[in-house]
Design goal:
alpha+beta, 4-stranded antiparallel beta sheet, single chain, 25% strand, 5-stranded antiparallel beta sheet, 217 residues, 11 strands, Jelly Rolls
C-alpha cells in the first residue's frame, strides 16, 4: 500500500478515509503517518544536501528540494511455505531519487555489490537504510550507483518494512559541473515519473538498466 505526497495532511487523510470510511482510527493514522513521513523526509533532505555539497553544486539544492515529492509505502513479506521458493521480492533498482527504508527485526533484504555479490545484513529497528535510485544515478552522470536489491525470506515470521521514496517533479538534468572530458554526458534530460512509467512497460521491464535504456546517451 502506498500514499502519494505523504508529507501532506490532505493525502494522508484521503488514504485513511479509504481504509476506514467509518472513521475508525482515521485521526490517529493520519497524524502518525504524517509525522513519521515528515521526519524521514528530513533525513532524505539531509542526505541530498550532503550529496550536492560534496559535488560542489549546492546552488541547485533549493530548486531540487522544491521539486521533491514523496511516496510512503507499507510492505509485508510472509515467510515461505513448505516447498515454496524463498524469494520475497525480485532483484531490482528503485526508480526514485532516494529511498529510505525502515523495517522490523526480521532479516531478508539483500543488496548486490558492484562485484556481483549479494550481501545481507542484520536489521535493527533503530536504523534506516538509505539507497540511491535510478533518478539519482542519472542526475549524478553515473557517479552514484543505484544498487540492485531483493528480499529473500527464510524465516517463518513475516517481515514488515516501510519506505519513503523521493521523486522529482519536472525535468532532471545532469549539472554541468559533473560533465568533463573524463566524464562525458551519459544521460539526456529526463522526467522521473516518465522513467517510472517506462519501467512498467513491456520494453522497460526487460532492460537491465532502466535509466540507461530510457535516457542514456
Amino acid at each position: 500500500m502506498g500514499i502519494d505526497n505523504a508529507i501532506t495532511l490532505e493525502e494522508t487523510e484521503d488514504f485513511a478515509d479509504t481504509m476506514w470510511p467509518g472513521g475508525n482510527d482515521h485521526f490517529w493514522y493520519s497524524k502518525t503517518v504524517l509525522s513519521y513521513s515528515t521526519l524521514v523526509s528530513e533525513l532524505e533532505q539531509m542526505v541530498v544536501r550532503m550529496v550536492f555539497e560534496s559535488y560542489g553544486v549546492y546552488q541547485h539544492h533549493d530548486s531540487h528540494k522544491d521539486s521533491t515529492t514523496y511516496l510512503f509505502r507499507m510492505m509485508k513479506y510472509r515467510g515461505p511455505e513448505k516447498n515454496e521458493a524463498n524469494v520475497g521480492g525480485d532483484a531490482h533498482t528503485d526508480k526514485s531519487f532516494i529511498t529510505v527504508l525502515h523495517q522490523n527485526h526480521v532479516s531478508g533484504l539483500q543488496v548486490k555489490s558492484k562485484d556481483g555479490q549479494w550481501m545481507g545484513f542484520k536489521p535493527s529497528p533503530s536504523s534506516f537504510i538509505v539507497m540511491a535510485g535510478d533518478a539519482l544515478l542519472g542526475w549524478s552522470n553515473d557517479r552514484i550507483n543505484a544498487p540492485f536489491h531483493r528480499v529473500v525470506m527464510s524465516e517463518s515470521e513475516p517481515r514488515y518494512s516501510v519506505g519513503l521514496f523521493s521523486f522529482i517533479k519536472g525535468i532532471i538534468k545532469v549539472p554541468e559541473k559533473l560533465i568533463d572530458e573524463k566524464n562525458p554526458l551519459r544521460f539526456k534530460p529526463f522526467e522521473n515519473f516518465g522513467l517510472l512509467r517506462y519501467f512498467f512497460t513491456e520494453e522497460g521491464r526487460g532492460k537491465e538498466s532502466t535509466i540507461k535504456a530510457y535516457c542514456g546517451v
